[in-house]
Amino acid sequence: MHILIANDDGYLAPGLQALVEACEGLGEIDVIAPEQNHSGASNSLTLSRPLTVTRVAGGERDNFLYVNGTPTDCVHLALTGLLDTMPDMVISGINNGANMGDDTIYSGTVAAAMEGYLLDIPSFAISMSQHEATHFETAASITIDLILHYQKNKPKDAMLLNINVPDIPLEKIQGIHITRLGKRHKAEPVN
């Protein structure tokens, strides 16, 4: 299996590091992430300046790159010529904070996964349920389970899954719930 990993929190983010470590051994992994945090970048592309792709210095991996652009830039560059072969899956995350409801349209994490999905590649956007998360290993473990489940039960069409994981130890996870995307409501005045 060939997996492309991206994110929106930047290439030094602890969630990205946890995801990459967890995916070791699943197959070929390429990591292409933004140089800086681009949370809330949505599906934006950088059109006003040249983009630079840089290999992470001193890293153990030849295939760990960062781009001075958005999450969508990262995946778009990877899928339109940067990679020698197309990946079997795109995984974006692990985001530090939830991506739920209407907020998914602003999410760089979801946008990176969506870029893969738009090219008919199965894609997952993985997020922690709150900011200042500490249990990235929980989300990483659940991601591995979902990848393995997907490999055994491949649907005929590619899909985009937006996955939010509670910031708790793995042993406290009580199951997985499949939901539909909710909608925002107007704020109610506080009395």
Structure description:
With 191 residues, the chain is an alpha/beta fold. It has 4 helices and 7 strands, in the order βαβββαβαβαβ. The protein has helices at 14-23, 71-82, 108-118, 136-152; strands at residues 2-6, 28-34, 53-55, 64-67, 89-95, 123-128, 160-165. Strands 3-4-2-1-5-6-7 form a 7-stranded mixed β-sheet. Helix 1 (14-23) crosses helix 4 and helix 2 packs parallel to helix 3 (108-118). The termini are far apart.
Whole-number mean pLDDT: 93
Task: Going across the biggest sheet, name each strand in turn.
Answer: 3-4-2-1-5-6-7
Q: Give helix % range.
A: 25-40%
Shape descriptor: globular
Largest sheet: 7 strands, mixed
Element order: H for helix, E for strand? EHEEEHEHEHE
Proportion of strand residues: 15-25%
Main structural class: alpha/beta
